[in-house]
Design goal:
The complex is a heterohexamer, with three copies of chain A and three copies of chain B. By secondary structure, chain A is mostly helical. Chain A contains 15 helices and two strands. In chain A, strands 1-2 form a two-stranded antiparallel sheet. In chain A, helix 2 runs antiparallel to helix 8 (about 225-245), helix 5 (about 150-170) packs antiparallel against helix 7 (about 190-205) and helix 8 packs antiparallel against helix 9 (about 255-280). Chain B is of the alpha+beta class. Chain B has two helices and seven strands, in the order βαββββαββ. Chain B has helices at about 15-20, 70-80; strands spanning about 1-10, 30-35, 40-45, 50-55, 55-65, 90-95, 100. In chain B, strands 2-5-1-6 form a four-stranded antiparallel beta sheet, covered by helices on one side. Chain B has a two-stranded antiparallel sheet with strand order 3-4. In chain B, strand 3 and strand 4 (about 50-55) form a beta hairpin. The chains are: A mainly alpha, B alpha+beta. Strand 2 of chain E pairs antiparallel with strand 2 (about 30-35) of chain F. The complex binds adenosine-5'-diphosphate (3 copies). One adenosine-5'-diphosphate (ADP) sits at the interface of chains B and F. One adenosine-5'-diphosphate sits at the interface of chains B and F.
Chain lengths: ~425, ~110, ~425, ~425, ~110, ~110
């Protein structure tokens, strides 16, 4: 590099006009492209690392006897998802659009697609891959501790293969929602709600864990086995979200700081608000709900992270805090859907609410900033459309899996633990466990 | 006074506790043990090598009760736990010579 | 971007002088600013991740029955701190200076301040936020296992609100210490000593954990419940420190490599020296102290990381190793202040010593490099001034909290564990614990 | 920065030719160099973080009673290695070459060497340091649960001091293998095989753990104590590998995306293939082997990550999956070498196979792409040469250590655990353990 | 020989050990159990749902002693542990038919 | 029926299990305890402060057997475990009044 620099400089002295041209060509756009390349890559790595976060949260918030199974599910949805998304999913999401509904090109070799991006295709593909895997992972938590491993593999593959890419195409692949002006910057709806709604359908169809609801309808708590690991997972997710949101800018520019700030403020506010509510409501501040509060704040801000102000982010985080506490209670106690890690509340509800709130808080176009109700309407349409699509397709999916492979392990395997039943192993061989 | 040592499947603890509570048992000691009886081990795999776990997770519930209660309690436990499969568990009965409640210093049947 | 590049190039051919101007404007400064933006952001994310490291170290080095409480404290000091620092703290630290003592502008909307930086304000604010939160977190470890949660929330808020920003203003906000020429590149004193001294005062005022010191004055060890997690935390902190120190350069330039190297060498030397000392002293190499050795080395090099040579870094790390072993013993056995995780030794002592050592090892101005005693004097003044301020204000703070909300949980809650007493929960529901 | 920019622009208007020269000098090469600096640094930090991954994998896959010891070994090989590599190792690897065999300059102050790089020497040194430490760490897992701590310190120091730098010099320091055209982009052979072969020799010489092989030759499984932590470690390693492979490009350019993609696809395929094989072979999908599958895929792609296509990466990952399952079984059941974490299979075998597969799959020069057998031959020579060197030198090393300090702890310490015997401590003081 | 089964609060273990040591008890077996007696459960919350932990952490200390020592030891334990609050714990006394020291093969009182 | 309570070193569990299996013992209860006997504590260090762990990890194996088997089994266990060092362990023998197999309701010796 040093040598070529020297030549360029020499040339620039003798052949001035050309030299300027040449020097510019080599440097300016290229360097920004290189900068964008490493930025998007680093963001992708951070989002990848969220897999570890999900694994720790889900394992920590469930019982020790199912911990290996949870780990294996997280490992496999990402691994299988990475391959499937490369081979088919990316093409369905970003290939040539069929009526704004689905992509139709770029299968098997998505890196040959030309999307007119500033960064190499491979960079964009890996960034999209880690996003796709996130959607699939969300479901695993809600259906934990009772799902057959084979069934899980199957439905998480279908999610990454079809359900998610279609929604992605609508919003980010140039489809109909993006044409409407729908704002979902980093995926409150595209990624999180899709995961959340699929989780809701799955958890409802598979039914609650044995012992979760008494005959009298009483709700029994089934405490997670390792709150410290769960908290580590939340911190990892928060860390990864700094790739998720700022990375979605897809270029290194001056907007990134604002995105990072809104992300952080919403997460922090979510945690604080949940702490306050649970303190008032239950008499003591609840640790595991406060951890969910962080995640709720993060999910909610994801749609509008680049569109709202700092104080808007604080407001969105606060709303997310309420949604977390009352939403999780509603799902648990009213709907009686057993969601061990709170995935539906965190990803489904907060994702939807956060997306709609962009219609209120967007500095440019939001109702509270004098933008009228247009954006609010579009946001609501987007949320509803994605919910309808996901609830519908995943209903068919889970029913089909149930009727074929079978969705649930048998009673004995559930009681002894899925680690034993599904993998003939145990996560904590040296520890004396209560169960 | 007698001690009943009841060995059960882990997932039956709640039910047993309920039965004992209802029968007026005033206290219990619960511990996690590894056991084998007619129900023998299970096979596990770890990194391609087999691993016979011939000790299974069991819960041991110990209660100290008045002599008069032994029969009714063993009956109720059997009703609750009998499935007819190996692994249903066992009850062992021992004599207790004395019991002392530290809080008050009471001893004998008053103390349990 | 590509299109605008093309236009610029075209223009540059026809309108040369202007073109050069225009092209430069679009590209050169902007690209370096974008580069600085992502560099500082990534560094901020790494420093954020240190929160996970602190949580794991503090949880791992204390008892299982208090693990959820520790987690909750770490979560909340960061969350509340993020909000408070945004609203007030940043303005107190970087707002218009009142006599070099405290900032006075930029409250509520610190992003409107103009500090003449090369990077957007939001980038700088998030970087400073994660630093501020670090100072607060340090205290939590020293007072672990016996502090009321409400009291913790209160004093950690005050720390982030006032105590830390004032010191920050003195050194980094253009205040009197920076005018003296005080060198604290990334915060050995500003961040770590502040945390460490507040921790000392807090731990002294609250008193030792039940059972820590026998009636005969014998010191009882209370082992941490998960050394593996503690070690994970140390590795995470080490990783995060590569954001803490190199990130403090605030720009992407050629000095970064040296900063990363000195950081790493000091940490490594700290660990090795502690291992050797404990091996000789106790007969066997001590694991948990060696882990503290890493942290001691990191804290000590933080002030001079950009000012000393590689060998200087090794020397500073070695000194930190001695400070860790003898400092922690001094605090534990002589002062009889019960600091479960060694926070005072690591952050207070190593921070102070490391800052003073800059006066000896700074390649430019250090005594050993022929710079005379001037810098050494300034460094010492800075350390003493910060210690005096922090010890004083935190003494008032803790005494006030003690007299109002109450500082310590009652005996029964301490014995049963704060998880139960303060949060009605348990961290490890499925494990059989000894206590 | 802003101010100097302004001056340059002003100058460029009045003193055009010179100005262009000056502006170019300040900006173009410098900015790319700054970009490369932060890229390589961030990659180095990610690779550093792999130390945490190794520590968690090794601790999680072994027994609770040895966990502190494992942690301590990981901490110390990195710490001691950092210092030794700085003082001597770097010079042996990159100093002036003696006949293409070993470097001979730059000791004590490697930052004074001039390697003609685009990035500052310190940046390159820290990047190389974290690589060197990786090789040493690998051995620790294979010899876990029975090695004397003092012996470990000794041989890991020698590994970082001599065995690894020599191989590094051959391939990356301008030595004879690089002159042959040997391709090992990021170190399948240089780093991983070196670690793997040394691990094989070490584990063979020290002998199996008590109880691993019955008198009748029956193989007993000794389950790891924390599969969740092990999995966390694998995710951390995967994350770190995005520094390991793309970082080895040493510059921020458009090739990075492809490298990240091949890395990810190979890892994912490795995991999936192992899951399928174990499912068919043992009846249930094996969790801990699938985790090894990820690592196998990562190690195997490391040599050819920049040379093969996406589908080539999938193929290499698939081969790695087979190597993992059958390789680990071969070592365990046929060779009867007791390698608790599968280090020989993962790093030794997959490293060797992956390097050779470059000869088949390299888009440029690979047999399958019409490049003939030349590259295949060179790759094979490289693999064999490195294996011969490492097996030979580490045989001498371990035999010497055995004869002097002693390699193995005594029977009682092994049974009670190395935590007690070597460090007089315990990792999990509050938990009731089975052993 | 008698076995004393002493159920105590977890934080009293150190004190009990000291008392026993001083009284010439030659060995003990300590285990973690979950218990309930007059002291009933505690309430916990987990994610908004209530959780009644009706089994509390207790420590069980078992000692095998000569008949003659029973009274003095139970007395001392009571002195050490009595606070007058529920949860102070209990002592159960059983007969031991024989004891064998594996190291030497001794049996009976010599073995304890 | 008698209960044998066998306290052993953790690493001897496999051997003891084998011996018992071969001798026709039909069930066992294994638990982890902390014990001290003639073998006293070990010293540990934590952060420069000393820590005397005077309770060592032990395994307690409990078996309920017919009276007739007591002697042969105690003999075999002693053969297997005796090394002559402190820490070899002990056997305590108790009377069992009754045993009930929950699965079938059988009681007495048939139930063990
Ligand atoms: N003879 C025995 N001695 C000690 N424990 C026993 C004995 N028999 C059974 N147990 C304990 O009781 C548990 C349950 O026994 P189980 O297998 O259910 O017996 P069964 O199938 O004959 O009813 C065993 O796991 C073991 O812990
Ligand atoms: N009848 C009993 N049977 C078995 N264990 C008992 C019985 N009564 C008490 N315990 C055990 O002793 C422990 C302490 O009892 P505690 O609640 O202190 O009794 P009290 O308050 O009457 O003194 C209980 O937690 C329980 O484990
Ligand atoms: N008198 C006793 N009461 C209760 N447990 C005992 C007694 N003596 C020994 N034990 C248990 O047996 C274990 C083994 O005893 P050990 O130290 O091997 O005795 P010795 O060396 O005299 O053979 C002890 O750790 C303790 O748990």
């Amino acid at each position: 590099m040093k040598k070529s620099m020297f030549m360029i400089i020499m040339m620039s002295i003798f052949l001035l006009p050309t030299a300027v041209f040449a020097a510019e060509e080599v440097t300016t756009a290229d360097i920004q492209a290189n900068l964008d390349t490493i930025w998007v890559l680093i963001a992708a790595f951070l989002v990848f690392f969220m897999q570890a976060g999900f694994a720790m949260v889900e394992a920590g918030f469930t019982r020790a006897k199912n911990a290996s199974n949870i780990i294996m599910k997280n490992l496999m949805d990402f691994s299988i998802g990475s391959i499937i998304f490369f081979v088919f999913g990316f093409g369905l999401m970003f290939g040539d659009s069929m009526a704004g509904f689905i992509g139709t090109s770029g299968f098997f070799n998505p890196n040959t697609l030309d999307l007119g991006l500033n960064i190499p295709m491979e960079v964009f593909i890996i960034f999209q891959t880690v996003f796709a895997a996130t959607a699939a992972t969300i479901v695993s938590g809600a259906m934990a501790e009772r799902t057959r491993f084979a069934a899980y593999i199957l439905y998480s593959a279908v999610l990454t293969l079809i359900i998610y890419p279609v929604v992605g195409h609508w919003t980010w692949g140039g489809g109909w929602l993006s044409q409407l002006g729908f704002i979902d910057f980093a995926g409150s709806t595209v990624v999180h709600s899709v995961g959340g709604w699929a989780a809701l359908v799955g958890a409802a169809i598979i039914g609650p864990r044995i012992g979760k609801y008494g005959k009298d309808g009483k709700v029994h708590a089934i405490p997670g086995h390792n709150i410290v690991l769960g908290a580590l997972g939340v911190f990892i997710l928060w860390f990864g979200w700094f790739g998720f949101n700022p990375g979605s800018e897809l270029t290194a520019d001056s907007a990134l700081g604002g995105i990072a700030m809104t992300t952080n403020l919403s997460a922090a506010t979510g945690a604080v608000v949940v702490m306050i509510i649970t303190w008032l409501k239950y008499g003591k501040p609840d640790v595991s709900m406060s951890l969910n509060g962080v995640l709720g704040g993060l999910v909610a801000i994801t749609a509008g992270t680049a569109a709202v102000s700092m104080w808007g982010a604080i407001a969105i985080g606060a709303v997310a805090g309420f949604v977390i506490v009352y939403g999780i209670e509603f799902i648990d106690k009213v709907l009686k859907v057993d969601d061990p890690v709170g995935a539906v509340g965190v990803h489904g509800l907060c994702g939807a609410v956060g997306t709609i709130l962009v219609g209120l808080f967007a500095v440019d176009g939001g109702l509270f900033y004098g933008g009228g109700v247009k954006l609010l309407g579009v946001q609501t349409i987007g949320v509803i459309a994605v919910a309808a699509w996901t609830l519908g397709t995943s209903f068919i999916l889970f029913k089909t899996v149930k009727a074929t492979v079978g969705l649930r392990v048998d009673r004995q395997d559930e009681e002894l633990g899925l680690d034993h039943g599904e993998h003939a192993t145990q996560a904590y061989a040296d520890f004396v466990l209560k169960i | 006074m007698k001690k009943l040592e009841i060995v059960i499947r882990p997932d039956k603890l709640e039910e047993v506790k309920e039965v004992l509570d209802k029968s007026g048992v005033t206290g219990m000691m619960v511990s996690t043990i590894m056991g084998c009886g007619h129900q023998r081990g299970i096979k596990e795999m770890y990194r391609g090598a087999e691993l016979t776990i011939n000790l299974l997770h069991k819960i041991k519930v110990e209660i100290i009760i008045r002599d008069a209660m032994v029969e009714s309690i063993t009956d109720k436990i059997q009703q609750t736990l009998r499935t007819g499969n190996v692994g249903d568990g066992k009850i062992f009965i021992y004599n207790v010579e004395n019991a002392i409640r530290i809080r008050t210093g009471e001893s004998g049947e008053k103390a349990i």
